[in-house]
Amino acid sequence: MANHQEHANLIWQIADLLRGPYRPPQYERVMLPMTVLRRFDCVLAPTKDAV
């Protein structure tokens, strides 16, 4: 079973892949819109079949 540090390392590796070529000051340009889109997806999921 993986320990806490292994899980943390995995999360950081995934974050590095998702972040891509963006520098820290540019994260808000990407992360906030993606977070909002994901939230909309979760909120509207129950009505997906009706659309």
Brief descriptors of the model:
single chain, 51 residues, mainly alpha, 67% helix, flat
Give a written overview of the molecule.
Helix content is 67%, strand content 0%. With 51 residues, it is mainly α. The chain has one domain. The mean pLDDT is 85.
pLDDT averaged residue by residue: 85
Low-confidence spans: none
How are helices and strands ordered from N to C? HH
Q: Helicity, in percent?
A: 55-70%
What is Rg?
Answer: 16 Å
The largest sheet is:
none
Strand content: under 5%
DSSP strand count: 0
Shape: flat
* Measured distance between first and last alpha carbons: 42 Å
Q: Which structural category do the helix and sheet elements fall into?
A: mainly alpha
Tell me the number of structural domains: 1
- Helix count? 2
Short description:
By secondary structure, this protein is mainly α. The protein has helices spanning 4-19, 27-44.
